[in-house]
Amino acid sequence: MSTVPVEHAPEPPADVAVATVHRGPWAFVRATGAAGMASALVIVVATFVAVVGPVLAPEDPSFAQLSYSYVGPIGGHPLGFDGQGRDVLSRLLVGARTSMLGPMAVVIICVGVGTLLAVSAAWRRGAYDAVVSSGLDILFAFPGILLAILAATVFGAGLVAASLALAVAYTPYVARVLRGAALRERSQQYVAALEVQGASAFSICVRHLIPNMLPLIVAQATILFGYAMVDLAAISFLGLGVQPPRPDWGVMVSENQSGVVQGYPLAALAAGVCIVVVVVAFNILGERLYEQAQAERR
Amino acid sequence: MADVALARARPPAGDGEPVLEAEGLRKEFGDVVAVDGVDLRVPPAGALAIVGESGSGKTTVAKMIVGLERPTAGTIRACGRDRSTPARTTAERRRRGREVQIVFQDPYTSLDPRQTVERTLEEVLRLHGDLDAEARRARVHELGDLVGLDARQIRALPRSLSGGQRQRVAIARALAARPRVLILDESVAALDVSIQAQVLNLLADIRDETGISYVLISHDLAVVRQLTEETLVMWRGTVVERGPTGQVLDDPRHDYTRRLRASVPRPGWKPRRTAIAEEEATGG
Amino acid sequence: MRQVRTAPVGGARPSTAGALLELEDLVVELPVEGEDRRVLSDISLRIRAGEAVGLVGESGSGKSMTARAIDRLLPDGARVGGSIRFDGRDVMAMSGADLRRFRGEVAMIFQDPRAHTNPVRRIGDFMTEALRTNARVPGRDAEQRAIELLGAVGIPDGRRRLAQYPHELSGGLLQRVMIAAALLTQPRLLLADEPTTAVDVTTQAEVMAILDELRRELGLAMLFITHDLELAAAVCDRTIVMYAGQVVEVRSSALLHTDPLHPYTAALAAARPDIASTADRLRAIPGRPLSAFEAPPDECAFAPRCPHVRDVCREARPPLIDLDGGSSRCVRAEELRGTLGVTGG
To answer: What is the mean pLDDT of residues C170-190?
Structure first.
């Protein structure tokens, strides 16, 4: 009796089903393993804070006492004060909202537009697909940050302009990945069967194509959320995103740079850690979901 | 079983107005002519086989009939109505769906993996129908009975069904709106022999019960013999031979049909190199 | 490591003399969703040098898995019991140079040639690779032999073909290239896994003709795996019928249709439509084919679908018994002998 050494492993027989997608969202996340679930937990906490942050904040995040500038943790202020003497913890809790809201807007726009373009291109094929694909190729040439700077000079600095610019920059990535998936789904015979029945293109896309692409769409959205958060923080750091004194993690890193130089990095660091933790969580979960979505597709 | 066989009343081919007819069907893909000058007629409750190998154009003919490809030239009429050009309205598209339906080859991609059998059938009924929820449910079970799926299988997702069961679902879906013509595009080719026999018997029963007509697209001559009365042999986009199925198979006239017939394994058969010169001359 | 139960096969143990390949009580289990599922139960078979043996079965019967087990191509984590001997050597104990030599002596041809060729490598590189790397044949000589073999499989302009890529060849042509490639290492046994399922009927006839001719010329043994009983019977000396991971019948191909020994073989032959006549009704087998792990361990796996089933069939899994020069895994085989043929069933 022995376990045979394997030089080349062929795929398992066809009757071995390994589906997980169709068992609801929780099973879907659970299948991503411990790291995936831990990431999901971080995201849930971050989202919760984004919603109720202002209620949780022990102090007014804008209440400045210059005499407390860069004062370390003291009673009631576990993370100390920033350069203008504002409570860091309160600013983190309140700043979670804009820090999460920006990436969310980016993701909603680019995934929405990307899905629309991908599905319509895969459905119509031919000339329409060619136009969409080459349009996306042109957009690929523009880095997100560059577009954001451009948008800020045209529309003025702020979260809206920055988010829109990033959404435009990310859309080609989403659309390209989803177009491949949409084309594969489009070629399934059940789609042809529905066409022959006389079902409309819209209902086939909305009721069949997109739901079957959903695992991949969710995975893409999750990964992009992380990217968007980093990019938006960078834009805010450059002063082109969220405008002070509004609390935002990216702004906080920017505002408290001088503290790092002065030997008091805690204020900038605390915001930086928040960004890193949330971004890493989104990336890990997104990658896991993506792998899972790929494996699903036989 | 013998009763069923005796009760079978297949009208001889050519009887009555054809439910499906095509004339001068032609399809070009760029510079390639995939189908050229194909004529066909299918009488009510008749069964026509289109035989040929990959690249013969037989599947393209099927796709043109159901409207998945648009003919470059020629006309297609089903139930007396023209369908050579794409449907202009939703109502027209759905009406065509009630005239001609199709069952594809691959039982694994022909069902939406997220939909139970019940919902798959429901969706189609809702699309065509004036049926209320109660009547739809009844019809779903009626269709299940017709193709031999039990209540548990009707509630199941495709992945828990075998290939043969999935193909039954695809047949039930095609029959849901009571079409007059069913195109069977290699619909039994991917099934195990023992299951293939079940499905072929089922198709014969359905024809007896409903008077539906079949167009069987196939490369399998034995299946063609079992299910059809008329055969049309396609080779490189054109029809090279046509006639009653028995006659075409027993006494093939065209060179290609003979070669095809001689290539089918049967007891006492020995494989021979017949097609090499052919392929070398043109293909590869 | 757990021991896989291997039930002894009843009846007279065949003599091992002259067997090129011998499988004895082969059991294979694969891990599926955390449990080990049996895919092959007690497979025993022998192939003599130069003999062509058909291995016929429906999906889940284990026919492809048997070939993979022989060529040591089982998926990760597979558990194997019983023995596989090639020319007297224990295949499962082989490693390194021995295994490479064995792979040279046993060539495999697959159903889908396109899936087993690298689309960005030329036919020539693909064909001569094994010769150049394993047998250390100089590139020029390897190429010359490849061209000769391409000629033998009916491809006269071999030199031009060697410079082509797989996508430039039709399916039938590529399968002939695969056959030529398989023969390059001068194997003694050919494992052909549904080599013609993906090609057209006329191409199938021609591929089979080539395979048959070359096999006879070179004195090659072949295990020919197919779902097509008639095709197997036409090109093989003996045919083995598998069901639910078990061998249910071994029979001389000439007698397979007229005088099968197991009800499953008879039912399979009867279920196929006949090209020469239209049946009122096909004799379909009720139910569906079972996989090995679905088959109840203590009764005949075919019992639920068998028209000849009796209580005795459900009392124990029948052994493979020798009968009339063949073997049958049916307890009623002797009783039913002579009645199962296509005309008598």
So the answer is: 90
Residue B208 contacts residue C280 (beta carbons within 8 Å): no
User: DSSP string spanning A181-234?
Assistant: HHHHHHTSHHHHHHHHHT--HHHHIIIIIHHHHHHHHHHHHHHHHHHHHHHHHH
Q: Does the beta-carbon distance from B225 to C274 stay under 8 Å? A: yes
Quick check: C92 and A4 CB within 8 A? Answer: yes
Nearest CA of chain C to the CA of A17: how many Å? 9
Cβ-based contacts of A31 with chain C (< 8 Å): none
pLDDT tens-place string over residues A17-51: 333 345 567 777 788 888 889 999 999 998 998 89
Neighbours of chain C (3+ CB pairs under 8 A): A, B
**Mind giving me the DSSP string for chain B?**
-HHHHHH--PPPTT-SS-SEEEEEEEEEETTEEEEEEEEEEE-TT-EEEEE--TTSSHHHHHHHHHTSS--SEEEEEETTEE-SS--SSHHHHHHHHHHEEEE-S-TTTSS-TTS-HHHHHHHHHHHH----HHHHHHHHHHHHHHHT--HHHHTS-GGGS-HHHHHHHHHHHHHTT--SEEEEESTTTTS-HHHHHHHHHHHHHHHHHH--EEEEEES-HHHHHHH-SEEEEEETTEEEEEEEHHHHHHS--SHHHHHHHHTS--TT------SHHHHHHH--
Task: For C35, name the nearest residue in chain A, comparing CA atoms only.
Answer: A16
